[in-house]
Amino acid sequence: MHSTHGIGKFVELVQREVSSGGRNAVKTQREYLVLEYAPAKRGYPGDKLFVPTDQLDQLSRYVGGEAPVLSKMGGSDWAAAKGKARKAVRDIAVELVKLYSARMASKGHAFGPDTPWQRELEEAFPFAETPDQLQTIDEIKADMEKPIPMDRLLSGDVGFGKTEVAVRAAFKAIQEGKQVAMLVPTTLLAKQHLETFTERFAGFPVKVRPLSRFQTAKQARETVDGLADGTVDMVIGTHRILTEKVAFKDLGLLIIDEEQRFGVEHKDSLKKLKTGVDILAMSATPIPRTLEMAVTGIREMSTLATPPEERHPILTYVGPRSDKQIAAAIRRELLREGQVFFVHNRVQSIQRVAAQLGELVPEARIAVAHGQMGEHQLEQVVDDFWERRADVLVSTTIVETGLDISNANTIIIDRADKYGLSQLHQLRGRVGRGRERAYAYFLYDENKPLSETAADRLETIAVNNDLGSGMQVALKDLELRGAGNLLGAEQAGHIAGVGFDLYLRMIGEAVSTFRGEEVDGPAELRLELPVAARIPEDYIDSERLRLEAYQKLSAAAAVSAKDDAIDLVVEELTDRYGRPPAEVEGLLAVARLRRRAAQAGLTDVVAMGPNLRVAPARLPESMRIRLQRLYPKAKLLAGGEALVVPLPTAGGAALGDADLIAWTGQLLDQLFPVATTAASPAAS
Ligand SMILES: Nc1ncnc2c1ncn2[C@@H]1O[C@H](COP(=O)(O)OP(=O)(O)OP(=O)(O)O)[C@@H](O)[C@H]1O
């Protein structure tokens, strides 16, 4: 994405010779990123934009979920897309801030301090809590003890122990005679959480009931009556809690698992349920830092970022489907008394696939589960698998969100190329939740060609299998869902229009504006000097690695980067590719100059023929006097929108690259001092 022209397609890196023009023209080799835009008129080839590699800060990687529409060059297209997104963002910001102020104004219940039973419950936890779990639990209790209703989002990778946090929050509410409702997206998850909560509350006079399609009408009615008269302390269920118009005697806490999975049709009944009660939302989709900052103070967030101890990364294999491979994987798991998930997402062919597996591994007891089965049959099959009366569960993705079966530590995903990244990540999270080493096999049909994005997705999930990495960059679509979780699913369209990062920045700005805070969007800086500033092929031959190096350098030169960021990039380049040659030194010096100019809030430092143009140049009187003394031939354009200084020459010839950069750095130091600790280029 280009800040002016919008969404373009990266084509290649090219070298170009440019001259600085004017009398003593200097020719230098520059490297450019070539981007292709939509054609101005139908039927014409797309327009091409050449972006100098030392100006990559104008570019950011587009991430928006589905394939983006290329903008037309010139910026009107892009401005329109931004305008639309900005309007949508403003609406969200208003919504978010309204919710926030409504919450601040409403009266919630201030829970008392922990009871002795609370401590007893918590000491009975069979594991050592992770530091994040402990911190999150404390944050939640503090929120609950405030008179203002809590609205906290707990995000954490699959299997990181969110449920235990919910157990303790629920118990605290029940201790005060309040009721708790837990909303989960699937019947299986409802059943699983019911088991966990019932087990954890055993020994305490607490009544927990399920409410999903697994319950008969009679059971459901008993539960609904119990909630109305207060004899049922906690209900764990699916959207049936919303559709059954459940009335609570005294609801104190609402826990929502994977809120973004509840369709907009439940939005209103959810909103009604939420009024005046403490809310704990849980999500396995990482909420991006940028979004977190954007909504800080509007929505409290907690993150479980460390895995429970002794969790091993899941060994992930990506490859063509082969019976031998499948048989070996199942046998290995059965040998260690373990169980296997086999995910096949087509109901029509799932029985045939199960029969095939039965032939492949006759000694394995195979069970089949899919969403179109009757309630009881589905529950029976899942129970069989749970109670280890089955070794292999062949199922559709219904297994994705639920089933914390610590004895199942192999998952085989058929036609893995058919799944999105987040789904693969969540499916894989179904195994490796205990201490056993877990295995994941992502198989594809070698007779059906893999699309490039599918191959890229599988490659990404195979490479990123360390725990909790959240696979930041690659799992942007998870983050998109995370954003949907926070902002409402209908925003996906706008995010696609301008890309994820810009959209989040817009939210942050909109929220700050709405709160009357000053929004200082980073000024776009154009810095162009006729110096050799590029990475030659003989230093880094791969285009991808060269692009990566340019991007790292551009990020390090940003105002928000740390002072030593550029030095760290130099170290990394030197370690990987050896001492940087002169041209790369030029690139590094330009990066330092760029950062310096950005810190001074300049928008232009551009060599034009024999002069250097610096803008804006609103110099105080004292600085003008200094300017006259130091640069007598300099011209300060009226209103201070620019300063034009003749470029120095050495005996009639143009300065060498390093000298020119040093001279420019010195000029900035002298005329545009900033209160920064960074050593200025002149000094370096
Ligand atoms: N601190 C811990 N140490 C070891 N194991 C833990 C810890 N906390 C939870 N577990 C166990 O890890 C497993 C996964 O926990 P849990 O189901 O709460 O994860 P989750 O974050 O809710 O996963 P998902 O996102 O899939 O719902 C459970 O068997 C739980 O008992």
Could you characterize what this model shows?
By secondary structure, the protein is an alpha/beta fold. Helix content is 40%, strand content 17%. It has 22 helices and 23 strands. The strands form five sheets. Strands 6-7-5-8-9-4-10 form a seven-stranded parallel sheet, sandwiched between helices. Strand 6, helix 6 and strand 7 form a beta-alpha-beta unit. Helix 16 crosses helix 17 and helix 18 runs antiparallel to helix 19. Bound molecules: adenosine-5'-triphosphate.
Question: What secondary-structure arrangement, pairings included, does this model have?
Answer:
Blueprint: E1 9-19, E2 27-36, E3 48-52, H1 76-105, H2 116-123, H3 131-144, E4 151-156, H4 162-175, E5 179-183, H5 187-201, E6 208-211, H6 217-229, E7 234-237, H7 240-243, E8 251-257, H8 267-274, E9 278-283, H9 289-294, E10 300-304, E11 315-320, H10 323-335, E12 339-343, H11 347-360, E13 366-369, H12 375-386, E14 392-395, E15 408-413, H13 421-428, E16 439-444, H14 452-463, H15 476-487, H16 492-498, H17 500-514, E17 526-528, H18 543-556, H19 565-577, H20 582-599, E18 604-608, E19 611-615, H21 621-630, E20 635-636, E21 643-646, E22 649-650, E23 653-654, H22 657-671
Parallel strand pairs: 4-9, 4-10, 5-7, 5-8, 6-7, 8-9, 11-16, 12-14, 12-15, 13-14, 15-16, 17-18
Antiparallel strand pairs: 1-2, 2-3, 18-19, 19-21, 20-21, 22-23
The site of adenosine-5'-triphosphate has 20 residues, from helix 4.
